[in-house]
Amino acid sequence: MRFHMQNSLIGTSVIRRLNLKAIFPLLGLVFVVLFFGFGTKGLVFSKLSLQSMLNEAVYIFIGAIGYAFVLAQGNFDLSVGSVMGVACMTAAMATKINPYLALPVGIITGSIIGLINAFVIVKAGVMAFITTLAMSFMCTGLILIISNGAVVGAPLFMLKWYTVPLKLGVILTFGIAGFFAFERSYYGKISKAIGSSIEAVRQSGTNIVLFRILPFIILGTIAGLLGFISLIRTGTASSSTGSTLMLNVLNAALLGGIPFSGGTTSKFRSVIIGTLTITIMSTGMTILGTSTVNQQLIKGLVFLVTIALSFDRKNLKVIK
After folding, report:
1. Which of 17, 50, 202, 308 lies 20 to 30 Å from 58, alpha-carbon distance?
2. DSSP-derived 3-state class of residue 152
């Protein structure tokens, strides 16, 4: 009897040490790889599919890196997709003056909007949910005003800038910089500490204002860069540009294991795992003939399930 009790206790201890929430993202990635690998008869890993995944990964991976800093502090940003759209539109308009103005104009546009978000949330004390939702609506309206409802094109030679070395270079650069900033820098550690307990960080004597402002500026800047990348990939800017970015990057961060409430359990590896999961899922569904609308529906359901599994019910103050 004692032997069985000891075995039971040892088994329970092992399960606790495994921490199912920590290994769930990796299990999810393995499931997606096997499901779409067999479901598409290996086509999801063909050369053409890998090229498609690389195109998706540029947006999702870089966007998720920026979103990770926001999530780590227990915040989120509903405007990132619309900011990307505005940045793409202003970059397209800048090409009418000089094509080489597109990149700085796109980045500056995203940075300014990120700064406005940060100021309203941190200094004015308006909740991130309300601020970024309102900004999303304003950005959508701004796109229509700037373009007058039309699709704006860029010079065709700019499409030659969108190369495999560019995509890989951007991914590697942001991946390395993001890892060190998130896991090794003082800023990354304080950001996660704010997510765990903002009062504890404040009482330690740390001036948290700049730490809380920076994530929104970083994400806005990244959205601006992605707007430029979208322009040189498609050659156009329209009101639909960036419409799927927010759901994709948020899904990637959460599926990878960053908790919705942020905190010290947030890890950079979550961005990598989540990006792989979402890109393989998107490519696999496309190969299987799933329509764009149904793909969004499935991703929305995945989003709900992921939040249910990752939500820290001990910390109800998630929306800050």
Report:
1. 308
2. strand
Residues in CB range of 129: below 8 A, 6 or more apart: 76, 78, 319
What residue has token string 């990964």? Answer: 57
Q: Where are the alpha helices (DSSP H) in 97-197?
A: 102-118, 128-147, 164-179, 186-196
As its CATH architecture, domain 59-310 has Orthogonal Bundle (1.10)
Return d(Cα 172, Cα 167) in angstroms, integer.
Answer: 9
User: What's the pTM?
Assistant: 0.88
Sorted by where each begins, the domain ranges of the chain are: 59-310
